[in-house]
Amino acid sequence: MGHDRELDRDAPPPRPVYGRAERDPETDDPWLPPAELAPPRSLADDLELGRLRNELRAATGARSRRVPERIAPFRFTGDGSEYFRIWVVNLLLTLVTLGIYSAWAKVRKTRYFWQNTRLDGHAFDYHGDPRAILLGRVVALALVLGYAFAFDISRTTGLVMLALLCAVGPWLFMRAQRFRLVNSSWRGLRFGFDAQLRQAYRVVLPPLLIWFSSAIIGAVASTRMGLLGAAGTLSFVMIPWMHHRLKAYQHSRACYGARTFAFLPATPAFYAVYFKAGLMTLAASMIGGVLIMFGAFALRDTLAAQPSQTLLFVAGGAVGLVGYLVAWPYFAARLQAAVWSHTRLGDVRFSTAIAAGPLFRLTLKNVLLTLATAGLYWPFAAVALARYRVECMRVESDEPLTTLAELTIAAPGLAAGDAAAEAFGLDIGL
Amino acid sequence: MSESWAATRFDGRSASGDVVLLRIVGDTLEIMSRNTLELVPLAQVAVGEAFEHAPRMLGLPGGRTLEVPDAQRSLPAALAAAGKRPSWIVRAQRAWPAAVIALGMLVAAGLWTYVVGLPIAARHVAHALPADFERRIGENVLELLDANRLEASHLAPERRARIEDRFQKAAALAAPGVEVRVEFRAGPVNAFALPGGIIVVFDELVERAGDDDRVLGVLGHELGHVVHRHSTRQLLQSLGLAAIAGLVWGDFSSIASNVPLILGVMRYGRAFEHEADDFAVAFLRANNLSPRPLYEFFLRIQGLEERRRPGQIPDFLSTHPDPYTRVERMRREVEAYEAAKRTQLR
User: Nearest CA to A54 among A69, A76, A74, A32?
Assistant: First the structure.
């Protein structure tokens, strides 16, 4: 039956590979070529062939009884109690070394999350060099502190600092993306980022200039309130556009071996997500504010003894928390869906089943338990969140992923060793 | 028969992998595929950290990798037996007792940083900052306050000049070389010091104080904040706390990491008030004045507020958990001063 299909070119998918459909399901294994193609029995066959098969089948998620799927789910195998121990030790060492260990902690943490993420039975891996990350953090800290205080020193220093940020910003962003991707791998092959200097400036400089426009106008012509207001409004209205531009850059320059990712334009989708999330934040904050006012009225005798500043802080924090709880899950879910439904890797498509409702329940649980345990639940929360977000992801392709992987080679000039030359790592996520 | 492990070998140049069988023989890793046998000295194998539910990643020379499912979790012991022991950090991360000890140490280190480390660091940094820089921050804050919340003082200019003049003379004696200036604004019973020696006094404080000796005492207290650079230190401590909170709960939510920040700011306020009170006493002594007017001011403020609504703490004392200790401290200072005076007279 499988052979018939193979002969009939017009037959719709699914297309069996190697004519595997006819084979005995018990011995069928995606790892091994069909029996008729197999070389004579080898050393590996003689050595505990059964156990080898079982182990590999377990590792690859028991796909053996069916024709290879065209929808491959991501799996996450991380565990809260295991990550808790890693987190605690990382944190202690970071504090004791006055933050220097944070670069090593980041590598450990990322490795934990990557290696526990599986696609088609194989885990991802992370190879970042902690020393490069430390260097990147020092540079980022210097820039942030420099910008935070530059205008306190003088207007000229502030403007020089702004110019410096605009001059190096696109380059830093490009290097950050490159560092992250070049140090991530699946099936032993690293991802990559096609980083060209001129393009990085063309893409990243406009958002950067819009973002800093009010600061620049404020420094040069602070008396012209109309202009200042216009710049502020512009940068506010353009946030979804800027986010989309950077995300599109990130996703369209990424590659896996010689295969490059593509990103289909999605600016309206970004605006829709931002607009609805903004409305939800507003509504939630108003409801939260009213609830807090009622609460304050009910407890007025107890509260009267407290300093007014503390109350104000606590009330403000509570309103913000309510807004965050309601709007963030919606924002995160819809944005992840918008981003991945517009991303392609050749013929390979991505989709995510992530939804605001489950993400809201998860976030609520995470926040409440983290607050109730004075932060100790945080690593469990991080693992639970990663599990949900990762396991919602699917890869859809016409060919089985294993077949595609067999055909994927490294991009010319980007052999495995090249990544080691990446001496500068920055965390600029999106 | 020695143990063996199934693995996938990747060459790093493509995504295709081949199924291999691993064995550890002495200090050599044997990699067997269908038709090849590769021997790699274990010293050349980059052994990745073992996680409970993830495959084990082994790096081979030439950018190649082995992904070992190791379902029985027997590989770590075999590697250890062959001399590939994980680092002490990894061992600590795998064991619960070590994690519990680390948690205890973390709490201790966190408390120490919060109570001792941060204040010391903030003090050193604050005193190392150029005075010009501090003044600019102070001016900016005052400008911001003036633009949004503060109104001009209604006090008679002569009275303001008299208070400021007297204070400047006293300050020159008690803290020579410290530049300060007094700004009067309309507002409730309160006064505060901004970075760079700007002291803001509200009208109601001057009016309610009753006489200007008491105002001088309050200004002495604020001068204490200036001399000890409390506002700058407070700013730096808040930044430090924010950084630590970000490290602990980073990328979780800015709100969760702000909770300890708010609590921390409240606590530092109290320690600084004591320091400023002590300075005020020294300031008055340097000018051969009794701390009694300041004590009377505290009593008066407390009385005023108690009459208004029981249990409420006046703004001036709001960062203090218990105004009585503060008044009590001041009372003891007054007694000590007056006892010393009596001895001198005799």
Answer: A32
ipTM for the complex? 0.74
Q: Read off the pLDDT of residues A192-225 as tens digits, 9 standing for 90 and up.
A: 888 888 999 999 999 999 988 888 887 777 677 7
- State the pLDDT at residue B182: 92
- B336 Cα to chain A: minimum distance (Å): 32
What number is the average pLDDT over the span B270-276? 82
* Confidence grade of residue B275 (pLDDT, cut at 50, 70, 90): confident
Measured between beta carbons, which residues in chain B are less than 8 angstroms from residue A92? 102-103, 105-106, 109
By three-state DSSP, how is residue B190 classified?
coil
pLDDT of residue A361: 94
Interface test with chain A among B1, B14, B32, B270, by most A beta carbons within 10 Å: B14
Chain A interface includes B137 (CB < 8 A)? yes
| CB pairs A-B closer than 8 Å | 216
pLDDT over threshold 50, residue B329: yes
The model's pTM is 0.74
* Residues in chain A closer than 8 A to B98 (CB atoms): 85, 89
pLDDT at A249: 93
Enumerate long-range contacts of A354-363, CB under 8 Å, 24 or more apart: A354/A388, A354/A389, A354/A392, A356/A329, A356/A330, A358/A388, A359/A329, A359/A330, A359/A332, A359/A333, A359/A388, A360/A325, A360/A326, A360/A329, A360/A330, A362/A329, A362/A388, A363/A325, A363/A328, A363/A329
Beta-strand pair A122-126/A117-119: antiparallel
Chain B from 251 to 290: CB within 8 A of any A CB: 252-253, 255-256, 258-259, 262, 266
